[in-house]
User: Fold these one by one.
Assistant:
Number 1:
Amino acid sequence: MNFNAPIIEARDLTKHFGGTRNLFTRTPTVYAVNGVSFSVQKGETFAIVGESGCGKSTLGRLLLRLIDSTEGRVIYEGKDITHLGTEPMRRLRREMQIIFQDPFASLNPGMTVGQIIGEPIALHGLAKGAALRQRVSDLLHTVGLQPGYAERYPHEFSGGQRQRIGIARALAGEPKLIVGDEPVSALDVSVQAQVINLLESLKQKLGLTLIMIAHDLAVIRHMSDRVAVMYLGEIVEMADVDDLFDQPLHPYTQALLQAIPASSPRQRRSKPSLTGDLPSPTAPPSGCRFHPRCPHARARCSDEQPVSETLENGHRVACHFWREIQNAGGGAPLVSIVSPKLTERLAVYRQRQAQVDGTIKEQSNKR
Amino acid sequence: MLNLSTLSKLPLNEPDRQPDRHDQVNPAARHPVLEVSGFSLKFSRAAHVPNLVEDVSFSVNAGETLCIVGESGCGKSVTSLALMGLLPSPPANIVSGKAIFDGRDLFTLGERELADIRGNRMSMIFQEPMTSLNPAFTVGHQIAECVQRHRGLSGAAARKEALDMLRLVRIPAPQTRLDAYPHELSGGMRQRVMIAMALANRPQLVIADEPTTALDVTIQAQVLLLVRSLQAETGTAMVLITHDLGVVAEVADYVAVMYAGRIVEYGSVDEIFDDPQHPYTIGLMGAIPSVGKREGALATIRGSVPSPEQMPKGCRFAPRCPFVEQRCIDAVPPDKQLGGTHRVACWIAPVEHALSGAVA
């Protein structure tokens, strides 16, 4: 893939919450994001993955400046927007949108779908009156909903349909960059597949850049070009999606990949890949933050924070001993076992579905 | 079969132990613990309202796990709540069916009899451990309470029992955790406490409703392994309800695929993964992104689950099925036996035979 310029960059982004003093006590400081740097190229799908509490959602909000960073900078299209004022930031927001996880909580129940999608259009002065209504119905059509739905309220829709409405709203301002904060994780599997396919085709069609924040590694493998793995507020590894899945270098990434449930009962595991829980972000461990759970940890890991190292192919890893771990066969690639009968029947299923879709299209064209 | 002494002598820390799925249970112990037959339910007394759960039958043997897999609204949770007697009636209305547990039909038992069985010989693990634990009591107190209620143990004995249970579910520093409140524990730890409570009275049957859905993937892996090895050790039968085929692949012995209130396919876990028959099962498997190399767009199941008011008359999957024919719309497909334990409720299956035919 050929990417030209970065659309957005994070430089040493840091966000600490709390640490404020009241009359008697000091609230504990949560070290949510710590010195995170990366850049996202135009047209790319960049994924940020990690477990709950790793700071991935905070990072997403920092990028869009929905919250302000404690330290570090955000560069959008070559321009530092870290301290951009309210009004210019508001105008810029048109270009950078977010899709939230919970399609039930993120749509105003008192507004019709038409108002929800139309609001950003009106706000940014893109269209008015009949043109606005036309734009709303085009957007509904784009996300695979009937234009007539504009008159209805969010509660009349299923989770998948609501997520489509959320996507239509994000598209309303004709954005360049969309951050998806777990956009499909609240959806059922069959609906999730529909929304993933929709996001991918929209990205193609509209030339969008996507930043996907997710915990589902299979979804990430399917959708992304590059992946950053976060642990306790830091990026421990970053690489092209195939490199990361085929040759994970950081022991945390390796453990994360091995924890994915089997694709077949023949692949059952006998050992958990990781023991223990994520430590509290109010008191992150010394040295390498992963060391208390790392099966390869040594004395140096608790003393010294590993520096991120970038390899020739752009693969970035922050671990003192990744070479030795790799030589010891730490990151075996994942295989998914699909039975021959399923493969055959799935092909039949797709073929038949394509036929049916073709017939439906013909019929609607005749009308 | 299940007694106290075997459990307390269980080895506590054997992460390497890999129970073999089919040999783990003594063949003599292979008897059904729960047999559900012809179970139908709706939330209405009106005759014209279609059943939300329709003609569901399955059984679970000692030491085995049956996974009920399906998407939201397929009736899997309602089925489990009905079995536990946790659905208020009205509005719930069990239209027909039996659930034979321990020689008695659960659907005919009174509230008192159910209360004696629940948490004792039959227990439940819920999805959200934060809302299922009482925030005002320590976890030790909550485990001890269910031991005292059903076994009449003294306070000190119950506390000791609670400690043993925390050890059994591999909670680090169990002595201190005994006096911890739920909010002081992490999600994975709370779910372990739930499992400890569910197993405290050595139930014959555990019903687990999405026990790992709220957990992170590394914690989920720990909990699933724990459940599997505890089950192999205790011989408890388990009904595990999930939407995640990965979880099914990890723990199931048998699988029931549910769609819109019906079991559309049933079989051993190998039968379901090697030879999926129902178009819904096939679509579901194709809709999951693979962790292997990327292969084009995902298969999708068009549309969404029918609402209870618009339940199709024939096959409930017909409106979303790419293989739909007239007979699918007209009549409910009967169960087709496919050898072994495998059965499918579909007029068309196997789907490769349908390919030559014209689109209806």
Number 2:
Amino acid sequence: MTGTSPTLTEVSRTSLFRKLALAALVFVFAALSLSSVLAQQHLSKRYPVRSNVRVELKNISGTITVESWNRDEIKLSATMESPAANVSPRQTGDGLIVDVMADNRGRSDIGDVNFKLQVPVNSSVDLETKRGQITVSNIRGGLVRAHVSSEGDIELNGISASQVFAQNLIGNIFFDGNFSRGGTYQFQSGKGEITIRIPSDSAFSLVAATPTKRIALGPFWNDGLKNLGDGRKYTGDVGDGRSSVMVTTFQGSITFIRK
Amino acid sequence: MNCEKCQDLISDFLDGSISHQDKTTLSSHLAECLHCAEVRDDLQSIVGFCRTQQGQYAAPPNENALWLRIRNMIEAGASADTPAPAGTGRSFLGNWTARSWELSFPQLAAMTAAIVLIVSLSTAVGLRRWQSGALNAGIQSSQHSLSIGAVDVRNRISQQQQLISYWNQRVEYNKARWNPQMRETFDRNLAVIDQAVNDSFDSLSKNPHDEVSEEMLNTALNEKLSLLKEFAEL
């Protein structure tokens, strides 16, 4: 063996280089993360409105969250994945319209746009997206419509509207609320579980259908309900049938549970 | 409820003389069936129009002037023709062209309506034949196992399939612009809905009179149509 052992100066120099390389690596990662955060655009706007306002939102892709609050104004927050995305809300006489589809016509991919809306409790909300989850909480207006053209869960919590429409293709639908007298309630999924949680004294006229035969009416089952197609469809009145309820899923279950 | 029953009830439904049970069933069918919803809309607009007019239909503005213009045009046309020599040897065509075509306004209106009807019918028949010829391959693949007795069901399915085929072409045209994630989403969702359509077809082929399967098929086809329409605009 003819090799010489490294001196103390050489050891400390190597260690210094290692530390510098590590610091540079950390810096590069931090810069990349920061640039991706900065690339996202944020939009936050407030609109003074009356209490029973109508909000229409047509998104392409991304989540939509709607909550109620005790103010006569709408707060809209949007996070846009791509800087190319354009969101131009329009305030109308009876509410607010946000149409991402129209605002970005002719543009190429604009990525996800995630919305959060805070609206007066008596608002009507009409929400559409091609893809993404829709969550609506504590709304007591005339209409709650949540339409996902393809995949995305729909979660409606604390809803007391006279018209509720929830539709998606792949994804679960959860409804928690009340059925009001004379109201219309439609829930439709292609491949997803539909769960409806309502008070035990709910009265409605039911049409529930799924080829999977997985229909669990729980405490709302009664002898007056007609079983059609060997358990694939149930129709009839629960209570005095004051509201109309239609539930359909092609590949999933339908479950009614008591609040 | 099938379409035949639904269309029997639509008139009573519009008059408000229908039971609550029937109303619920009918409403759910109308929400699912595009064809019956169109019938309901047509009937509703006719009934609405009749109710508004209450049997008093407005004459066209300046009726006399309109009639005079028609009369002048007919006379101008007749005088331009060379009069055929009077005699017994005139041909049928000669007699027909030489005849003075003075028609009353109702006669003219009826004639115009008849012409419009004939043209519309022949166009519709021609279009249907052309479309069914062009799209036969697509329809046959999904319908080969279907042996439903009811012709109206088959017609309705065929009409829906034609619409689906049209929107499918639009989607294919625009698909190149979508990002890969959106394309995957669309394909995945289309597969789910196609599965539902095929399951309903299978079920109907085993039991052609199964109303639940018929309704499911109808809903699935409408769902497919709306998926295609919504993605075609992307």
